[in-house]
Amino acid sequence: MSPSLATRVSLILLALATLSIGLPAAFAPERFYEEYPFFASWVRLLPPYNEHLVSDVGGLYLGFAAIFGWAAWRPAPALVLPLCWGFLLSQGIHFLFHVDHLEGFSTADATAQTIGLGLLVLLPLVPIWQHRRDG
To answer: How many other C-beta atoms can be found within 10 angstroms of the C-beta atom of residue 59?
Structure first.
């Protein structure tokens, strides 16, 4: 059965999201720490800075970006499902950490961060649900 448009769009959005995190974290870790996302400086609210950790996380997100891009191009269930389940697990843990560490954030920033991270939890559910429905 042909992959749905919703599956492909979700995978492309996940590839772009992980790329937008991975590139600056991997190649400009201090700037990522000081300014991400888009000069809102949310990451620096959770000190301390660790160049090794930030660049490693960047590499991890770039790895996910590559696999999401591949899965969008060739969305075989044997690739899409474990990828989406694995990302859902990592982002679920990430989301729970951030929801529990909102001190220092303005209400607007806490809300925006929670919504953004929530989308990264919800987006992989689209291909998972689509496969369940189509499979």
So the answer is: 14
Residue of 67, 59, 48, 53 whose CA lies nearest to 24: 59
Number of domains into which the chain is organized: 1
User: The domain containing residue 14 runs over which residues?
Assistant: 5-134
What are the start-end ranges of the H helices in 74-106?
77-99
pLDDT (tens digit per residue) in 44-100: 999 899 999 999 999 999 999 999 999 999 999 999 999 999 999 999 999 999 999
Name the one residue in this structure whose structure tokens are 């590839």: 15
Per-position DSSP letters for 9-72, written without gaps between them: HHHHHHHHHHHHHHHHHHH-HHHHHHHTTTT---GGGSPPP-HHHHHHHHHHHHHHHHHHHHHH
